[in-house]
Specification:
By secondary structure, the chain is mainly α. It is 72% helix and 0% strand. It is flat and about 40 Å long.
Length: 148
């Protein structure tokens, strides 16, 4: 987990410095580490949080770059994985519980994104067209003010 923390922090420093390419590389590395840790880390909540943060930081980066569809893809991928984990009876219950807790945040992040930037094909598929009253065309991208 320490390697993930160092990697995500390096990505955040690059993001703040405007070095988008390096930030993306660090965020992708952090996501890869989080995916490996997802089922292996002893603290299920920390493992799920690392996974979610990695996806959300990538989403923020794509939004900053004016790529809202990529943002939607990252937000959906993170939320979808948590839904799968919640339903996977072969996973330990603490991991499934952590996925449930964190899925609330990923769901809210998706709804917020759609309200600001409109729906995309993957958001529609994942949410079952729950956002049919939302605009279909993205608005101008705005950077989320949080980095984890």
């Amino acid at each position: 987990m320490e390697q993930w923390k160092r990697t995500i922090e390096a990505g955040n420093r690059c993001f703040k410095a405007g070095d988008w390419v390096e930030a993306r590389e660090h965020y992708l590395q952090a996501l890869a580490l989080a995916q490996v840790l997802f089922q292996r880390w002893m603290d299920a909540d920390a493992a799920v949080a690392a996974f979610v943060i990695s996806h959300h930081n990538l989403a923020d980066l794509h939004l900053m770059l004016g790529q809202p569809e990529e943002t939607a893809e990252n937000l959906c991928a993170g939320h979808e994985r948590l839904l799968q984990a919640m339903a996977d009876e072969t996973l330990p219950q603490p991991l499934r519980d952590a996925a449930l807790r964190h899925s609330r945040a990923t769901y809210m992040e998706l709804l917020h994104f759609i309200s600001e930037h409109g729906a995309y094909p993957r958001t529609d598929r994942l949410l079952g067209h729950a956002a049919d009253d939302q605009p279909r065309h993205p608005r101008s991208p705005a950077l989320a003010d949080r980095h984890h």
